[in-house]
């Protein structure tokens, strides 16, 4: 498994786990979200950054040669394809949010709804990368 | 009239063997690709850029058409 594929796995696992816990906490808090909102979001972002840095360093130490090597043409192509898929997903979901937001009565999307769209797009991007790495494409 | 879609086949595995059983990693280092990409090219799962194809051919001292060939279905 290449360093880039391991990085994609780190991204998927850490985001699914940490953001999963955050959104579960938000759902559990329900309308009584209150002060948890900002503190919870801040803690989530810090936890995500720390976990990704620690895991990436661990993987880089295990295979320093792969980690130092720049992305080659196939890895760049895989990233571009994955970004294209994620962008299509994000654009579609934002367009749908705009459509439902313009209804009468409008559906109001809060910060967490928008964050969920963004996290889903990122998971889609990393997931697409993993699929392509697994297929060897 | 459009040509049928074909597949690019290559002789990299044989050429590596004939060049002192060169490993995929050794070839990858020479052409500045990853070992995984060399493996994908060898298996026909990834078609390299023209530049990478020329670099591979140059490593083996062969013309491009001796390393890669296009076969129509």
What is the compact description of this entry?
The complex is a heterodimer of chains A (137) and B (73). With 137 residues, chain A is mostly helical.
Question: What do these coordinates show?
Answer:
The complex is a heterodimer of chains A (137) and B (73). With 137 residues, chain A is mostly helical. Chain A has helices spanning 3-29, 36-62, 64-68, 73-101, 111-135. The longest helix of chain A has 29 residues, at 73-101. Chain A starts with a helix and ends with a helix. Chain B is of the alpha+beta class and 73 residues long. In chain B, 52% of the residues lie in helices and 14% in strands. Chain B has five helices and two strands. Chain B has helices at residues 12-18, 24-31, 35-42, 50-60, 64-67, and strands spanning 6-10, 68-72. In chain B, strands 1-2 form a two-stranded antiparallel sheet. In chain B, helix 2 (24-31) packs across helix 3 (35-42). The longest helix of chain B is centred in the last third of the chain and has 11 residues, at 50-60. Chain B starts with 5 loop residues before the first strand and ends with a strand. The mean pLDDT of chain B is 90. The chains are: A mainly alpha (137), B alpha+beta (73). At the A-B interface, helix 4 of A face helix 3 of B.
């Amino acid at each position: 498994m290449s360093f880039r594929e391991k990085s994609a796995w780190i991204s998927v696992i850490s985001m699914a786990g940490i953001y999963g816990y955050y959104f579960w906490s938000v759902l559990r808090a329900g309308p009584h979200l209150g002060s948890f909102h900002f503190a919870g979001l801040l803690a989530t972002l810090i936890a995500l950054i720390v976990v990704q840095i620690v895991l990436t360093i661990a993987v880089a130490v295990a295979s320093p040669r792969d980690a130092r090597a720049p992305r080659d043409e196939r890895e760049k192509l895989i990233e571009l394809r994955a970004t294209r898929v994620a962008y299509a997903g994000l654009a579609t979901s934002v367009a749908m949010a705009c459509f439902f937001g313009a209804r009468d009565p409008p559906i109001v999307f809060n910060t967490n709804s928008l964050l969920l769209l963004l996290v889903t797009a990122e998971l889609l991007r990393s997931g697409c990368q993993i699929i392509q790495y697994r297929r060897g494409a | 009239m459009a040509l049928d879609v074909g597949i690019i086949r290559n002789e990299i595995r044989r050429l590596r063997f004939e060049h002192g059983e060169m490993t995929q990693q050794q070839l990858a280092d020479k052409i500045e690709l990853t070992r995984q990409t060399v493996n994908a090219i060898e298996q026909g799962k990834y078609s390299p850029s023209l530049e990478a194809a020329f670099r591979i051919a140059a490593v083996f001292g062969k013309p491009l058409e001796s390393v890669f060939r296009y076969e129509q279905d």
